[in-house]
């Protein structure tokens, strides 16, 4: 019998070998993003296999070390779950404390635009291949273009949440005489364009591919719908978000990894009265950790980047125990993962040994939940998860809660949202100490549930590059109402060094442009039509 892990590694290696070959300097010129000579269209791809290789090159572009680190740093560094060690670069420390300038190296976006251009090239030139290769079907062409649209949209979604307004380019840069010195497009307009482009190709993607690594590592219709639901949630179109999440949940293609637990009646440590607690199955916890983060491509996964022994995950250098610049911010973890007040045996499985271990960012480097074994050279091939079912469920719950608020605290919607939240908490064995509605009776308070869901996203997606974007999404609602802005101001307490908290809160409350990064000075030099984000203008 073939070992399942070995089989999965073989699948990854086979797929990634193709991807890796596309990025070598000796590759054919049709893969060059910006051809050195005046390349004309006739010199591009001739067969559907070459067109498919170009599509795989778009996925490969997402896996560049620079982009991998920024998925994490842009989504986590300014938030409250990570800290920095003495080995961290000054640029990281400045960003952590909100002291960001246009010379900060972590504000560069060039690799994102390289990925975008790769996608634009596929969208523009793949149709010409059908004139050369009669076996290249129209449906396969549309699929390749749809995949490129999804990758491009994902790249723009990161850019607009990080910089707000950015240049929006949908034409390929493939000729020497082309110039793309263009001004920024407003975030809201880009959001609308992404929605239109994704909706246009929604039916062109397959539900699955022929192998597991491709089904999880390439955009399917459900991967597109997950990204689109996320975009709708950012926009505040809650009906559309709810509809998409419902489709994914009802597809039968995904399920939460099960963790068994035992219900036990014990004496409440506080009241002395018998109460119910839950003891999780430790074997199931280890299996879940392995499925999600050690092996990858779990039954819960919707879209994740596929790394292998021939292509290591460049993000992991941030966490490896030798000299890690990034670590878990333990004082905040103690607040987010407290033990049960009823009985210490009832604990959240996502805490020690799962998200973090001995202060390290464990879910990306650990090879075991129980033992201190982590990825060595040659093993740093952790997949990066963009979307999994738990994310869709919590997006659904958030959208329902916001819809309920718009409809006078509609209790039907709030109860449905609470039921979705309970699915995540039950699987995580989350104790009553983090339940904001514990033993409450009567009507559900919508604002309490809103905060409850945001807190749960923090616990569920710790170190998955979502925390800053989640809090910012809440803060900007209702044009930064005082209540919503407070989500950011509370975040600052753990986000910055203690002596920097007041100044950071002042920046975040007085100028909302400070919630986004500055455009890097090198980009301003290259593109003369760019204007620096107003908060950072001298």
SSE topology sketch:
Layout: H1 4-22, H2 48-62, H3 65-76, E1 82-84, H4 90-96, H5 110-132, H6 138-163, H7 187-201, H8 212-217, H9 221-235, H10 238-249, E2 261-267, E3 274-280, H11 282-295, E4 301-305, E5 326-328, H12 330-336, E6 356-357, E7 360-361, H13 362-365, E8 384-388, H14 389-406, H15 411-428, H16 446-460, H17 467-475, H18 482-495, H19 501-510, H20 521-526
Antiparallel strand pairs: 1-5, 2-3, 4-8, 6-7
Helix pairs in contact: 1-2, 2-5, 2-6, 5-6, 6-7, 7-9, 9-10, 9-14, 10-14, 14-15, 14-16, 15-16, 17-18, 18-19
Give me some keywords for this one.
538 residues; 20 helices; Serine Threonine Protein Phosphatase 5, Tetratricopeptide repeat; two-stranded antiparallel sheet
What does this structure look like?
This protein starts with a helix and ends in a 12-residue tail after the last helix. It has a domain at 4-91 and 102-219 and 521-536: Alpha Horseshoe (Serine Threonine Protein Phosphatase 5, Tetratricopeptide repeat), CATH 1.25.40. It has helices spanning 4-22, 48-62, 65-76, 90-96, 110-132, 138-163, 187-201, 212-217, 221-235, 238-249, 282-295, 330-336, 362-365, 389-406, 411-428, 446-460, 467-475, 482-495, 501-510, 521-526, and strands at 82-84, 261-267, 274-280, 301-305, 326-328, 356-357, 360-361, 384-388. It is mainly α and 538 residues long. The protein has 20 helices and 8 strands. It has a two-stranded antiparallel sheet with strand order 1-5. The protein has a two-stranded antiparallel sheet with strand order 2-3.
């Amino acid at each position: 019998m073939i070992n399942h892990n070995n089989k999965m590694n073989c699948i990854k290696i086979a797929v990634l070998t193709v991807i890796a070959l596309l990025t070598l300097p000796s590759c054919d010129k049709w893969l060059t993003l910006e051809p050195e000579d005046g390349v004309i269209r006739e010199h591009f791809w001739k067969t559907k296999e070459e067109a498919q290789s170009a599509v795989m090159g778009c996925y490969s572009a997402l896996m560049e070390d620079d982009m991998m680190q920024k998925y994490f740093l842009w989504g986590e560094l300014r938030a409250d779950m990570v800290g920095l060690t003495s080995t961290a670069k000054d640029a990281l420390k400045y960003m952590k404390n909100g002291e960001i300038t246009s010379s900060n190296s972590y504000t560069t976006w060039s690799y994102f635009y390289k990925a975008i251009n790769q996608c634009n090239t596929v969208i523009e030139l793949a149709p010409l291949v059908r004139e050369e290769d009669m076996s290249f079907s129209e449906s396969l062409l549309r699929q390749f273009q749809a995949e490129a649209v999804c990758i491009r949209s994902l790249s723009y979604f990161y850019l607009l949440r990080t910089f707000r307004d950015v240049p929006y380019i949908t034409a390929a840069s493939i000729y020497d005489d082309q110039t793309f010195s263009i001004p920024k497009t407003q975030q809201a307009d880009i959001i609308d364009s992404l929605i239109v482009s994704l909706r246009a190709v929604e039916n062109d993607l397959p539900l699955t591919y022929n192998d597991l690594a491709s089904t999880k590592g390439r955009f399917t219709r459900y991967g597109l719908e997950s990204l689109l639901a996320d975009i709708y949630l950012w926009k505040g179109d809650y009906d559309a978000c709810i509809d998409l999440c419902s489709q994914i949940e009802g597809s039968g293609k995904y399920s939460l990894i099960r963790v068994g637990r035992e219900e036990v009646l014990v004496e409440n440590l506080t009241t002395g009265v018998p109460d119910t607690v839950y003891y999780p199955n430790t074997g199931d916890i280890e299996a879940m950790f392995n499925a999600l983060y050690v092996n990858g491509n779990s039954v819960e996964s919707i879209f994740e980047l596929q790394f292998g022994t021939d292509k290591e995950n460049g993000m992991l250098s941030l966490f490896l125990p030798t000299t890690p610049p990034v670590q878990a911010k333990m004082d905040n973890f103690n607040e987010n993962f407290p033990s049960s007040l009823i009985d210490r045996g009832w604990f959240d499985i996502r805490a020690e040994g799962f998200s973090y271990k001995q202060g390290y960012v464990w879910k990306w480097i650990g090879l075991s939940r129980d033992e201190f074994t982590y990825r060595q050279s040659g093993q740093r091939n952790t997949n990066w998860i963009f979307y999994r079912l738990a994310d869709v469920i919590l997006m659904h719950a958030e959208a329902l809660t916001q819809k309920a608020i718009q409809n006078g605290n509609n209790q039907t919607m709030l109860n449905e949202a609470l039921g979705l939240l309970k699915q995540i908490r039950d699987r995580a064995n989350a104790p009553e100490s983090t339940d904001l509605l514990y033993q409450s009776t009567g009507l559900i308070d919508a604002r309490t549930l809103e905060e409850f869901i945001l807190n749960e996203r923090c616990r569920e997606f710790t170190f998955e590059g979502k925390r800053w974007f989640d809090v910012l999404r809440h803060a900007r609602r209702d044009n930064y109402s005082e209540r919503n802005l407070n989500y950011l101001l509370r975040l600052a307490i753990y986000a910055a060094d203690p002596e920097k908290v007041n100044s950071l809160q002042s920046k975040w409350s007085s100028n909302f442009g400070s919630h986004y990064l500055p455009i890097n000075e090198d980009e301003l030099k290259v593109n003369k039509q760019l204007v620096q984000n107003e908060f950072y203008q001298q």
